[in-house]
């Protein structure tokens, strides 16, 4: 907690806007995420989910609005070790031969003093992260020998090893088989029980659904729904929020529809 009474929410974005190449991509985004909340960011292709999470970690500059991370304006925020970010799948192999253990260990770099060997606490955090994503038997293997889905899990383990207080993941389940979606759900469930704040971009929640406290749905660069997830038995709308629940399902699966805010694919 900060010494003042100002809130220190992990994320507080007010009237956020992003333009790419002069074209508005996000507009009028108000998003406050309190400690310990598990937020799913949903929406059709091109609706702005990735741009929003990238803006939230300072990778996309805001053209308007204010972003505070843990109560500190982005411009003066420097506690990046409190934040873990797993980008959309790009592969953990960069051409440099490195083992799973080495890549995951790099997630501890901000936690230890430069050029110091890994401490026992570092090593156990690395082992725990590798086990959590189900790669214990591949720890010594080169990341280049792993499948795309396994490389994604290496990146997740690297972020987990840093023991972040705020963890953002962009489509971690894309192209991942059901068994490994359950592995990921277990890993994120363990984080959630530690009180970690999670923001997750997804098309399909699948096994992650029970973890979600709040769904934010993007549409054409704006937030079109923000509220608690609603359980919809047998695919039927249910309860007073059924319209929204149905909308979430439909957005989750809508085919790509061209709009002025969508990129060519
Ligand atoms: N690097 C870029 N260059 C140009 N336009 C971009 C770029 N990145 C995003 N955009 C634009 O921003 C819009 C939002 O893209 P974004 O990737 O944030 O959407 P998304 O909801 O994450 O989509 P998806 O589910 O397909 O990943 C796109 O329609 C695209 O036009």
Small molecules bound: adenosine-5'-triphosphate
Shape: globular
Give, in spatial order, the strands making up the sheet with the most strands: 6-7-8-3-9-10
Low-confidence regions: 234-265
What would you report as the Rg, rounded to the nearest angstrom?
19 Å
SSE-based structural type: alpha/beta
Report the portion of residues in β strands. Answer: 15-25%
Q: Write down the overall mean pLDDT.
A: 81
Total count of helical runs of at least 4 residues? 6
Number of strand segments: 10
The biggest beta sheet reads: 6 strands, mixed
User: What is the ordering of alpha helices and beta strands?
Assistant: EEEHEEEHHHEHEEEH
Distance between the termini: 44 Å
Helix content: 25-40%
Keywords: ATP-binding, Nucleotide-binding, Transport
InterPro entries: AAA+_ATPase, ABC_transporter-like_ATP-bd, ABC_transporter-like_CS, Metal_Ion_Import_ABC, P-loop_NTPase
Organism: Nocardioides plantarum
Protein name: Metal ABC transporter ATP-binding protein
